[in-house]
């Protein structure tokens, strides 16, 4: 190259492959012929937005209308759950009645299931304990109530396995004794019919009813007439 007025003459590139390093100079060692190998290793690539296209958050894919519907569904469901625990199918019905579409119903129920705010198995077990201990219901009545609450069949089946037959007989006997005290003045046959019907309505099996009634109406003395206090 010739020098002109103390300056280097312009350089024109010939046809052919150019150097792979075309970015402006970055910190590092530079030789007279440009970047050396160490300089190339020190250059960090700039972020390419396309690299993150596969990991975008799902909510960002929702339209404004979808986001608004999701907020409406959340408001409806949380308001309903503050009143009492609901099964998934009960909550689905509440959301549909509020005008939420099927996709919105499914998304909201899935979200609440993930955080444990709806759980059919846990609700079924809770109801069994309440219906047994507080209301004195038998297995048949408990099963009917769990079905009425629209719980999943698998949750109902598991919860009913927790019903202890020994405890059920003890509860039936206690109920029969209390009820028998209100049947004074009736002959034995009438008292048996009344007491058996009462226990059957509360969901106790035939064998449990017979055992409880026989114990509650056992004659105090020999004779054909049973007197009650």
- Unreliable parts: 19-33, 47-62, 221-229
* Strand ordering within the main sheet: 1-2
Indicate the radius of gyration in whole angstroms: 39 Å
Overall pLDDT score: 78
Q: How many strands appear in the DSSP assignment?
A: 4
Q: Class of the domain at 63-118 in CATH? A: Mainly Alpha
- Describe the biggest sheet? 2 strands, antiparallel
CATH architecture of the domain at 63-118: Orthogonal Bundle
The first-to-last residue Cα distance is 129 Å
CATH topology of the domain at 63-118: Arc Repressor Mutant, subunit A
Helix content: 40-55%
Strand content: under 5%
Shape: elongated
Total count of helical runs of at least 4 residues: 10
Give the assembly state of these chains.
single chain
What does this structure look like?
The chain is mainly alpha-helical and 229 residues long. Among the domains are: 63-118, Arc Repressor Mutant, subunit A; 120-163; 165-216. It has 10 helices and 4 strands. It has helices at 37-42, 64-83, 88-97, 102-114, 120-133, 139-148, 153-160, 165-180, 188-201, 206-216, and strands at 3-4, 7-8, 30-31, 34-35. It has a two-stranded antiparallel ribbon with strand order 1-2. A hairpin with a 2-residue loop joins strand 3 and strand 4. The longest helix is centred in the first third of the chain and has 20 residues, at 64-83. The protein is elongated.
Question: Would you summarize the structure shown here?
Answer:
By secondary structure, the chain is mainly α. The chain is built from ten helices and four strands, in the order E-E-E-E-H-H-H-H-H-H-H-H-H-H.
Question: Which terms summarize this structure?
Answer:
229 residues, mainly alpha, Arc Repressor Mutant, subunit A, two-stranded antiparallel ribbon, two-stranded antiparallel sheet, 4 strands, 53% helix, 3% strand, elongated, disordered C terminus
């Amino acid at each position: 190259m010739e020098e002109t007025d103390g300056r280097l003459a312009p350089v024109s590139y010939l046809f052919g492959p150019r150097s792979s390093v075309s970015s402006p100079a970055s910190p590092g060692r530079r030789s007279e012929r440009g970047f050396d190998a160490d300089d190339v290793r020190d250059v960090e690539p700039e972020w390419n937005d396309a690299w993150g296209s596969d990991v975008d958050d799902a909510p960002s894919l929702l339209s404004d209308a979808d986001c608004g519907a999701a907020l409406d569904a959340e408001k409806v469901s949380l308001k309903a759950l503050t009143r009492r625990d609901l099964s998934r199918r009960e909550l689905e019905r509440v959301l549909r009645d509020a005008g939420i579409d099927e996709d919105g119903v499914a998304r909201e129920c899935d979200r609440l299931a993930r955080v444990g705010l709806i759980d059919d198995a846990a609700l079924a077990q809770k109801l069994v304990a309440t219906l047994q201990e507080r209301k004195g219901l038998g297995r048949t009545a408990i099963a009917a109530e769990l079905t009425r609450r629209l719980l999943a069949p698998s949750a109902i089946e598991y919860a009913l396995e927790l019903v202890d037959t020994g405890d059920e007989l003890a509860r039936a006997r206690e109920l029969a004794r209390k009820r028998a005290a209100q049947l004074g003045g009736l002959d034995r046959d009438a008292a048996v019919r009344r007491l058996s019907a009462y226990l059957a309505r509360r969901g106790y099996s035939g064998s449990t009813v017979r055992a409880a009634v026989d114990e509650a109406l056992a004659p105090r003395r020999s004779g054909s007439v049973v007197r009650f206090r």
